[in-house]
Amino acid sequence: MHRHPIVIALGGALALAGAAQAQSLRISDTDTARIVTVRYADLDLSRADGAHSLIQRVRQAASVACGGAPSLGDLNATDRFRACVSRNMDGAIHSLARPNVTALYETHTRPALLAAR
Q1: Using the 8-state DSSP alphabet, how is residue 29 labeled?
Q2: How far apart are CA 32 and CA 51, in angstroms?
Q3: Which of 117, 42, 50 is nearest to 86 (CA)?
Q4: In this structure, is the dihedral angle defined by the CA atoms of residues 86, 92, 94 and 100, taken in order, positive or negative?
Q5: What is the pLDDT of residues 15-48, one digit of tens each?
């Protein structure tokens, strides 16, 4: 199976990494200037458990790149954080162009993210 590493700058910019680099997603948020690398060379993305693991890694990286969850009492910050995570996960998952990963994300993860907003 031929896999291409991907570099993702969340918030809109996207670039493909060189083929010699390790398989990873590079997630950064333009508002926080944080960059988080998600490695996935150890995952078999053709399997549901591999796809699920990658989605979880991307969610965690997006959370970190978006500055971490704010205190529960700050509703405006919570809304901005959730929107940031959702937007950046959408971009990261869709840019992979892996139909099974996208389908799992669209079916299970994305609806939960949108419901929380």
Answers
A1: B
A2: 27
A3: 117
A4: negative
A5: 333 332 457 777 766 666 678 888 899 999 999 9
